[in-house]
């Protein structure tokens, strides 16, 4: 992944990540996340847990991996993080499954210009020994992504990266006023091997190859 757009947005030319490329990242694992640990901290790329459960929630509470854009700012579970703990998840693409003749065919969805996607997310301190937890914000699918699934991650354009991570924006209307998703015309997808159905093999670059 190319982090240059994010590095430029947050005015940190030396921002980088040491993570090895991963091609099949399952929920309930550590993922690369750009965030501020507090309002005064610089943006860092860290490994956080893909599974959101606030520290105040009990051990039986859900650990969602996604939060809907329509309700993330008003839900008791998500609203505090939307206000103060927004983050970005850099990715080259994601998988969705399309029903074809009674079976589910995985598709890889990415940017047509091959640039890094920056997925909007929220994070929270958890009440266990795991790293802080993350949920990716989703919105109704747009562009060609609608051919595969009715929802998609909220991928922000480059001008939105800095304000999304800016702790001075705390109100929903203000945040929405300074952030935009990428143009729907940038989204493309293709079918890939059903090998992605088996989590564990996340170093195989062939998983994203078109069939």
Automatic annotation (TrEMBL):
Transmembrane segments: none annotated. Keywords: Covalent protein-DNA linkage, DNA damage, DNA-binding, Hydrolase, Lyase, Protease. InterPro entries: SRAP (IPR003738), SRAP-like (IPR036590). It is an enzyme of class 3 (hydrolase). Its EC number is 3.4.-.-. SUPFAM superfamilies: BB1717-like. Belongs to the SOS response-associated peptidase family. This is Abasic site processing protein. It comes from Salinicola lusitanus.
């Amino acid at each position: 992944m190319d982090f240059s757009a994010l590095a430029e947005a947050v005015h940190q030319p030396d921002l980088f990540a040491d993570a090895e490329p991963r091609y099949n990242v399952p929920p309930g694992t550590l993922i690369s996340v750009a965030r501020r640990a507090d309002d005064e901290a610089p943006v860092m790329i860290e490994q956080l847990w893909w599974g959101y459960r606030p520290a105040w929630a009990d051990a039986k509470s859900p650990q969602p991996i996604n939060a809907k854009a329509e309700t993330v700012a008003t839900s008791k579970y998500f609203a505090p993080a939307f206000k103060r703990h927004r983050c970005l998840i850099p990715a080259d693409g994601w998988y969705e499954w399309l029903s074809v003749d009674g079976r589910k065919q995985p598709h890889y969805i990415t940017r047509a210009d091959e640039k890094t996607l920056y997925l909007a997310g929220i994070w929270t301190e958890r009440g266990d020994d795991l790293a802080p937890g993350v949920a990716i914000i989703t919105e109704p699918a747009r562009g060609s992504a609608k051919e595969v699934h009715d929802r998609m991650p909220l991928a922000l354009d480059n001008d939105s990266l800095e304000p999304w991570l800016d702790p001075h924006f705390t109100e929903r209307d203000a945040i929405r006023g300074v952030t935009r998703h990428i143009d729907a015309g940038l989204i493309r997808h293709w079918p890939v091997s059903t090998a992605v159905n088996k989590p564990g093999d996340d170093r195989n670059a062939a998983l994203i190859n078109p069939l």
